[in-house]
């Protein structure tokens, strides 16, 4: 595990050299590096070592001799390290929120999905027979076999809905190409549905916390898991993507953000530019005298003044506007660039995202 962590950290250092919060590789490129390089290193051969059932289904046999709780927590910490570099979100942005915004599966679900994908495809093979043990369910291989049995049973139950004839189903199951598609589809859907369910539960739990009502006003808390959130960032410059993530999660340099107040050890929530009691995103957008002289240009470019629509449709306009006029220190080096100034038109035409899963 230590070798794995070292390898991933080297990869992260390389990504840091080619990108920063306001420059370099875009979020799409960094997302590709996460999947193609970092995650590929972690999931490599995971069918051999990742024995853990993340679903906690009471109907399932409990895994007794799987991967240790310490290794699981190490993997989850590594996911946080990776996602902070990939997304360029502020520290203390909840990892669940980042995973949802950039459409990444929780690491344990991903590992389970890849491991089960491999095992289910090898099920019934001669190699699989070799690793079967029967020591009263105590050997890890026996536990792994039980898990695969459950999965294969579920896949066949799902397929039976499409194939009434049991003999035909068996015949198709024996075809490696067909089996591969069925298994891959099932394992991904299962992981996706679990990630979706977990995000909804997590978002509801946030609302019940003492500062929950303020938190859930941020757009990122109000949209469910799916690739429709990630598509909001497509086509934007790296600085715009960092700004948009901050605007949607609320974790950005405004005085009402408790993360900033903790870091600066200040209790002041007022606007440093006009003294308004609450330095919020909506204040900067619609009320602050320093910004609102540019507001007609923003409304003119978007043809509306709806906050939610800016956060879900006109992300190109709102992120440029925020970089140029919100006066946030993090964007000082790019705020004067011509591409972010108004009056201007949309440069990225956005169609509505698809809330369903995609592979
Ligand atoms: Zn103000």
Question: Could you characterize what this model shows?
Answer:
The chain is mainly alpha-helical and 359 residues long. It has 2 domains: 2-207, no CATH class; 235-340, no CATH class. The protein is built from 19 helices and 2 strands. The chain has helices at 2-18, 27-43, 46-49, 69-87, 95-101, 107-122, 126-130, 140-160, 166-173, 176-207, 212-215, 227-230, 238-249, 258-264, 281-286, 289-292, 295-302, 307-312, 315-325; strands spanning 19-20, 23-24. It has a two-stranded antiparallel sheet with strand order 1-2. Helix 8 (140-160) crosses helix 10 (176-207). The chain starts with a helix and ends in a 34-residue tail after the last helix. Mean pLDDT is 87; it is low at 353-359. Zinc ion binds at residues 271, 273-274, 276, 283, 288.
Rg from C-alpha positions? 24 Å
Structural class: mainly alpha
User: Low-confidence parts, pLDDT < 50 over ≥5 residues?
Assistant: 353-359
Tally of discrete structural domains:
2
Q: Give the integer mean of the pLDDT values.
A: 87
Helix content: 55-70%
Shape: elongated
Bound molecules: zinc ion
Summarize the helix and strand pattern as letters: HEEHHHHHHHHHHHHHHHHHH
Q: How far apart are the first and last residues' alpha carbons, in Å?
A: 28 Å
Structure annotation, total helices: 19
- Report the portion of residues in β strands: under 5%
Strand order of the largest sheet: 1-2
Write down how many β-strands occur, each being a DSSP E stretch of 2 or more residues.
2
Largest sheet: 2 strands, antiparallel
């Amino acid at each position: 595990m230590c070798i794995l962590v070292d390898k991933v950290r080297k990869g992260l250092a390389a990504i840091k050299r080619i990108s920063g919060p306001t420059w370099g590789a875009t979020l799409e490129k960094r997302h590709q590096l996460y999947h193609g390089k970092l995650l590929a290193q972690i999931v490599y051969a995971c069918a051999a070592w990742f024995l853990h059932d993340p679903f906690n289904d009471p109907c399932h046999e409990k895994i007794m001799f799987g991967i240790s709780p310490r290794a699981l927590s190490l993997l989850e910490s590594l996911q946080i390290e990776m996602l902070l570099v990939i997304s360029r979100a502020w520290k203390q942005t909840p990892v669940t929120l980042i995973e949802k915004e950039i459409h990444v599966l929780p690491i344990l679900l991903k590992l389970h999905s890849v491991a089960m994908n491999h095992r289910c495809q090898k099920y019934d093979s001669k190699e699989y027979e070799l690793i079967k043990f029967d020591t009263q369910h105590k050997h890890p291989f026996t536990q792994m076999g039980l898990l695969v049995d459950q999965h294969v049973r579920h896949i066949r139950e799902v397929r039976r809905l499409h194939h009434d004839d049991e003999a035909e189903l068996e015949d198709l199951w024996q075809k490696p190409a067909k089996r591969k598609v069925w298994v891959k589809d099932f394992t991904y859907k299962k992981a996706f549905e679990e990630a979706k369910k977990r995000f909804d539960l997590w978002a509801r739990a946030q609302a019940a916390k003492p500062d929950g009502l303020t938190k859930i006003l941020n757009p990122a808390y109000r949209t469910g898991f799916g690739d429709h959130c990630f598509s909001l960032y497509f086509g934007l410059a790296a600085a715009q993507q960092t700004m948009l993530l901050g605007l949607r999660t609320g974790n950005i340099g405004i005085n009402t953000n408790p993360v900033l107040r903790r870091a600066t050890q200040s209790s002041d929530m007022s606007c440093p530019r006009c003294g308004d009691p609450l330095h919020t995103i909506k204040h900067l957008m619609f009320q602050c005298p320093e910004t609102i002289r540019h507001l007609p240009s923003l409304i003119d470019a978007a043809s509306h003044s709806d906050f939610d629509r800016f956060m879900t449709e006109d992300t190109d306009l709102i992120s440029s506007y925020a970089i140029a006029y919100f006066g946030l220190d993090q964007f000082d080096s790019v705020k004067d660039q011509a591409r972010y100034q108004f009056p201007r038109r949309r440069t990225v035409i956005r169609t509505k995202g698809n809330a369903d899963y995609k592979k």
